[in-house]
Specification:
Blueprint (H helix, E strand, L loop, with lengths): L1 E2 L19 E4 L4 E4 L2 E2 H4 L4 H10 L5 H14 L4 H11 L5 H8 L16 H21 L13 H9 L5 H13 L7 H11 L4 H12 L7 H12 L5 H11 L16 H14 L5 H20 L8 H12 L6 H20 L15 E2 L2
Antiparallel strand pairs: 1-5, 2-3, 3-4
């Protein structure tokens, strides 16, 4: 018998697996664009307008945005069956992402988005995610499910249903953060969505699979992990020793570095500025300063090695989410609310010229004689 040893690009690094027109991640220059629009320009748009751009490729009119927001509002209300399932799921005390992954395929349907064909129920799922997440939060706190809200802005409606009293600057910061998270090319969860979509599985199963992938600490779960890391360190003065210990032991520092970006993640620049403003003069300021000190020490130590390592979107995002009132274990669920529209865009695009995704594996075991 003989053994065959072959090298493979682990994690599909550098492998182009399909084509897309939805977003471009320019890692060399630190740029991200949706449908040809630089994301740093889109953060001043209303959330629903960016969503429609990502979904359709066209700049929507004000009337189209209002119609879309109205349809999302009508579809967002949980049915009696939805509420019953959520009440049962809340009793399990499972992580919010596990609850979402389990309930998404079971949510009741709506006629609001029938013109989108196979993707129709996906729009309803995306519309219901805010109410689902807010309802889970309230049930866990021993409160009743939130009342239906007439707010057209999906993110403002979510914060209201969570029971938070949000100042305009908080709503703005939350909106910007959600816009920056709508889409990011073939990241792990989006690729998972496209794999499942390629089998012609229903759109709700596609979204559930993507949500499962997003839960991972190396993907969407890094936001929760980064904030918990700052809480663990507890003091900016302890950041240098913490980083040095991590480098010595090989512990991963969550929220630092990105597979795609060789320079600063453009989303991180915007979120860091928002986090700094929101934290200043509040109980969150020590946590922000701790994160900043961690980032500075890593930058210093990497420079000693002749390399660069930058904070990514997840590193400071937890400060924005905590300022808005979210518990840490709900961070990734809030991320999923925005990214669901990116998943839908990829679902729709994948249906244009579908072929089941079935890569080959390089076998390195024993070969029969």
């Amino acid at each position: 018998m003989r053994k065959v040893a072959m090298e493979v690009p682990k994690g599909l690094e550098g492998v182009e697996v399909d084509v897309t027109k939805i977003s471009l991640v320019d890692g060399e220059h630190g740029r991200l664009s949706y449908r040809g629009h630089d994301v740093t320009q889109l953060i001043d748009w209303p959330f629903s307008r960016v969503v429609l751009l990502v979904l359709t490729g066209d700049e929507p009119t004000a009337a189209e945005c209002r119609a879309f927001e109205s349809a999302l509002l009508r579809a967002s209300r949980l049915s009696a069956d939805d509420a019953g399932l959520l009440t049962l799921a809340a009793k399990t005390r499972a992580h919010p992402m596990a609850v979402l992954q389990g309930l998404v395929p079971l949510l009741s349907k709506s006629a609001e988005f029938e013109r989108y064909g196979d993707a129709a129920h996906g729009f309803t799922v995306a519309a219901k995610l805010p109410a689902l997440i807010a309802g889970l939060h309230r049930l866990r706190n021993g409160e009743a499910l939130p009342e239906a809200s007439d707010l057209l802005d999906p993110n403002a409606r979510f914060l209201a249903q969570m029971g938070f009293v949000s100042k305009p600057e908080l709503v703005h910061a939350f909106n910007v953060t959600q816009i920056l998270q709508i889409e990011h090319s073939f990241n792990a969860s989006t690729f998972a969505a496209r794999v499942v979509a390629s089998t012609l599985a229903p759109v709700e199963n596609v979204l559930a699979a993507a949500i499962g992938a997003l839960h991972g600490a190396l993907h969407g779960g890094a936001d929760q992990a980064a904030l918990e890391m700052a809480i663990e360190v507890g003091d900016p003065a302890k950041a240098a020793d913490f980083v040095d210990e991590c480098l010595l032991t090989g512990r991963k520092i969550m929220g630092m570095g990105h597979r795609e970006y060789r320079v600063l993640d453009p989303r991180a620049r915007s979120v860091k500025a928002l986090a700094a403003d929101l934290a200043k003069g509040t109980s969150l300021e020590p946590l922000y300063l701790t994160l900043e000190a961690i980032e500075a020490r890593i930058t210093e130590r990497m420079a000693e090695r002749g390399t660069e390592l930058h904070a990514n979107l997840e590193f400071y995002k937890g400060i924005v989410y905590r300022a808005a009132g979210l518990p840490a274990d709900f961070f990734t669920a809030a991320f999923a609310m925005a990214r669901a529209y990116g998943y839908l865009a990829h679902f729709i695009e994948s249906r244009i010229n579908n072929r089941i995704i079935r890569p080959a594996a390089k076998y390195i075991g024993v070969v029969p004689a």
